[in-house]
Specification:
Layout: E1 3-6, E2 9-15, E3 23-29, E4 35-38, H1 45-58, E5 65-68, H2 74-77, H3 80-83, E6 90-92, H4 94-103, H5 108-118, H6 123-131, H7 134-137, E7 147-148, E8 154-156, E9 161-166, E10 175-179, E11 184-188, H8 208-220, E12 226-229, H9 238-266, E13 270-271, H10 272-278, H11 293-312, E14 316-321, E15 324-329
Parallel strand pairs: 4-5, 5-6, 6-7, 11-12
Antiparallel strand pairs: 1-2, 2-3, 3-4, 8-9, 9-10, 10-11, 13-15, 14-15
Helix pairs in contact: 8-9, 9-11, 10-11
The structure holds zinc ion (2 copies).
């Protein structure tokens, strides 16, 4: 059932099957000229049925509605093409739209896997991961064409004007929408309560974590009463949540440094996969070996983004040996 958040703003909660994220929060903003649907849900029958039912209940006609996709993940843009009408404009950042387009290329997964091999993942685990990859399973079969949106651009719905706020980090082109009049930020996966947005490594970003932290500090400066996140409940104290996220990553970086210093003592130099196995994870598994392979994939990506940031800070160096990167602490000269 849709829930009215404030005048002309509705929350549409889409249950996500087989996902620890539980739900995707899509938001419908009514305008005098156009309506805007912010994010959608997986391309599955059950998700699409819930969305259609909710839009009907609010009384929204997709011919008068455009779609804004905060970023490229399947839980956000999966069904966009299925619910869009021929009169719907789909907005998305150029960076995410490019990445999404490239991901339909048959060789794309091979390239991603080559990166994970260099992190120390085994071929066997990557084959297993490919079978369970939700990014591919729940995405739209044909890519929906999108219109690019840029930082500072205003989407005028008639009566409501929403400003695009570029917030790269979670993905290369993650984009929030800001309503300065109501002081609401449609936050996508940039700020979420209870769970920390996954930050992984991307070929488009040399330092994804550093980019994300900059985007957090940028949004911290906005005059904001409410951040409407794409998962969990709305964030009513966004500055506090941003500070928590900043210190969470600070602690993670310290943890990675501790692991790297530990290896210095033992004389063994570790790759990213091995470093991830020593990091703390909030997963119900007794040890690293018992982690489901998909979780290992996420964990190694996250470890890589922290290592990349430490490299950017000049604290860590990596060296390649037989196609695998090994990391060590950079001693101050
Ligand atoms: Zn996401
Ligand atoms: Zn998400």
């Amino acid at each position: 059932m849709p829930e009215q958040i404030t005048e002309n703003v509705y929350l549409i909660s889409i249950p996500l099957e087989n996902s620890p994220l539980k739900n995707l929060n899509a938001y419908l903003v009514r305008g005098r000229v156009r309506n805007l649907l912010i994010d959608t849900g997986y391309y599955t029958k059950s998700c699409i049925d819930v969305m259609r039912g909710c839009l009907k209940e609010i009384g929204v006609d997709m011919r008068e509605t455009d779609i804004f996709l905060t970023h490229l993940h399947s839980d956000h843009c999966g069904m966009a093409g299925a619910i869009a009408s021929s009169e719907t404009t789909v907005y998305m950042s150029p960076a995410d739209s490019r990445h999404l387009r490239d991901s339909y290329d048959p060789g794309f997964l091979d390239q991603t896997e080559a990166v994970y091999l260099s992190y120390g993942f085994s071929k066997e685990e990557l084959i297993e991961n490919r079978k369970n990859n939700p990014a591919v399973a729940y995405r739209q079969p044909v890519l929906v064409p999108s219109v690019p949106v840029y930082d500072g651009q205003v989407i005028d719905l008639g009566g409501t004007r929403l400003t695009c706020v570029s917030t790269p980090g979670h993905t290369p082109g993650h984009m929030c929408l800001y309503d300065p009049e109501r002081k609401i930020l449609f936050a996508g996966d940039h700020i979420i309560y209870d769970i920390t947005p996954n930050i992984t490594s991307w070929t488009e970003m040399e330092d994804a974590l550093g980019t994300y932290l900059d985007s957090l500090r940028r949004v911290r400066g906005l005059d904001m009463k409410l951040a409407l996140s794409a998962h969990r409940r709305p964030v009513s104290d966004s500055r506090m949540r941003i500070d928590q996220l900043l210190s969470h990553h600070e602690a993670r970086l310290e943890d990675v440094m501790r692991i790297l210093q530990m290896q210095g003592g033992s004389g063994i130099v570790m790759n990213c996969y091995q470093i991830a196995s020593y990091m703390k994870w909030s997963i119900r598994a007794r040890n690293w070996e018992e982690f489901p392979v998909v979780q290992k994939f996420f964990a190694v990506g996250e470890a890589a983004s922290h290592l990349d940031h430490l490299i950017a800070l000049n604290k860590v160096r990596r060296e390649c040996s037989e196609g695998i990167y090994y990391y060590h602490v950079l001693q101050p000269a």
